[in-house]
Design brief:
eight-stranded parallel sheet, globular, about 45% helix, alpha/beta, binds pterin-6-yl-methyl-monophosphate
């Protein structure tokens, strides 16, 4: 299964988001009941998701952290059911204990938005399981990440993200995670202002030059709402940012990323199919 995950492909993998949280910024509370989250995951699979990313902790700016027991209680039943369906599941967690239990329940991938900074033992858990590991660029927990959105060094945000991700790769590899199992993510919106996100999206080639597959998540994030603000400056509501996200998905596909993390899998999948058809693939 892991080999398939890294097999060469002409288009990015679609990672469908299943947030089992009361407070995620885009869909908090909608899938808090395991039954609803499982049904949602199945819908995303039917829409064309390659991977389901199941998370029990909201990372929206200002969020407070759940207890580890709460996080486990949210994600485990959902992972167990969807993995039993045959889905490729990633667990979106910063905690070693949750990663370990999720892998035992059938998750394949560990998506750690902190890149091993929040709970360094997660790296040992991933290494012991031989699991693929998403290391995202991160500087601080959600309650104070805004204070860390400063990139004044030479090369600005792109150079800083490349350097800081390279440092995380060194630590992950020292902990025993194989090179081939590492995926990097620039962490749009995490200790980043809108201009930082746009800068990173414009310079994905520099991130790709680190030599690892890239995963990118722009879906429904604040910087899209700001771009699409009305004349009075009110940001476009979360549920009305999908067309902008589709444009980003096409940009990411052109940039050759490994994966795109989205809430609306069908919109992304349709756009990728159109692009593939125009490129001569996907003939009816
Ligand atoms: N964004 C969120 C949560 N998890 N994981 C990765 N790898 N990359 C991201 O950009 C990312 C993530 C926040 O968005 P959500 O609350 O809508 O899930």
């Amino acid at each position: 299964m892991t080999a398939d995950l890294f097999a060469p492909r002409s288009r990015p993998r679609l990672m469908g988001v299943v947030n089992v949280t009361p407070d995620s910024f885009s869909d908090g509370g909608r899938w808090l009941e395991p039954r609803d989250a499982i049904a949602h995951g199945r819908e995303l699979l039917a829409d064309g998701a390659d991977i389901l990313d199941i998370g029990g902790e909201s990372t929206r700016p200002g969020a407070t952290r759940p207890l580890v027991e709460e996080e486990l209680g949210r994600v485990l039943p959902v992972i167990t059911a969807l993995a039993a369906d045959g889905a490729v599941v990633s667990v979106d967690t910063m905690r070693a204990e949750v990663a370990e239990a999720a892998l035992a329940a059938g998750a394949t991938v560990v998506n750690d938005v902190s890149g091993g900074l929040a709970d360094p033992r997660i790296l040992e858990v991933v290494a012991a399981a031989g699991a693929p590991y998403v290391a995202m660029h991160w500087r601080a927990h959600a309650d104070h990440m805004r204070d860390f959105a400063v990139y004044d060094g030479p090369g600005g945000v792109v150079a800083a993200v490349c350097e800081e991700l390279s440092a995380r790769v060194r630590v992950a590899r020292a902990a025993g995670i194989a090179r081939e199992q590492i995926i990097l993510d620039p962490g749009l919106g995490f200790a980043k202002r809108p201009e930082h996100n746009w800068e990173l999206l414009r310079h994905l080639d520099e991130l790709a030059a680190l030599g690892y597959p890239l995963l990118v998540g722009a879906s429904r994030k604040t910087f899209l709402g700001r771009l699409l603000a009305d004349r009075g400056g009110t940001p476009r509501p979360v549920g009305m940012r999908e067309h902008a996200n589709t444009a980003i998905t096409l940009h990411l596909a052109q940039a050759g990323v490994w994966g795109v993390r989205v809430h609306d899998v069908r919109a992304a999948s349709d756009a990728l199919r159109v692009a593939a058809r125009l490129g001569g693939e996907d003939q009816e």
